[in-house]
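Consider today's protein:

***
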Amino acid sequence: MKIILLGAPGAGKGTQATRISEKYGITHISTGDIFRANIKQGTEIGKLAKSYIDAGKLVPDSVTCEIVKNRLAEDDVKDGYLLDGFPRSLYQAEELSKFADIDLCLNFEVDTDLLMDRICGRRVCSCGESYHISTLNGATTCAKCGKQLYRRDDDNPETVKARLDTYNVMTAPLIAYYSAQNKLASVKCGNGTPEEVFKAVCEILDKYGK
């Protein structure tokens, strides 16, 4: 299956992507990872993207779409993939349709107030582990490696609100776009645990794959 993961920042797409990838053997493709890989490898498109990033500018849609197009031409995605972080706009979705035939757009629905709490209460470790202050019981170090936990600079109310506003303006219209193509399936995350959300996701994917 070729699947797009859609949802506002903090909806839990990354967590579910890892679980989906492991259970169904589908390659997880993060736009951020693609950028980093191209920049590290010094590809021409990577150099172009880096020139914008270094200048503090957004990478143009044309460059982003070309990077994704190149990634989807690689052998490890021939049996399917999860697109995480792309498309982010109607323009990108329309461009994607020119070089990929998407089977399903999986939309993670979460209340805005809950998203604010999730992101602003998030604490992370340099080893990659992530926690929430509601479950830390006052702990300030990572349970996995013992290092000091910290809050990301952009995990503050003002920045989070701006990110959510951008999502609502730029990306949320994709819900109607894929719904009109009968390719949309939504999962109501609410206060469900990652395990409960994944169960709902599996029910959709198992039904869709039949």
In short: The beta strands are 2-7, 27-30, 81-84, 104-109, 122-124, 130-132, 184-188. The longest helix spans residues 157-171. The longest strand covers residues 2-7. Residues 6 and 107 are 5 Å apart (CA to CA).
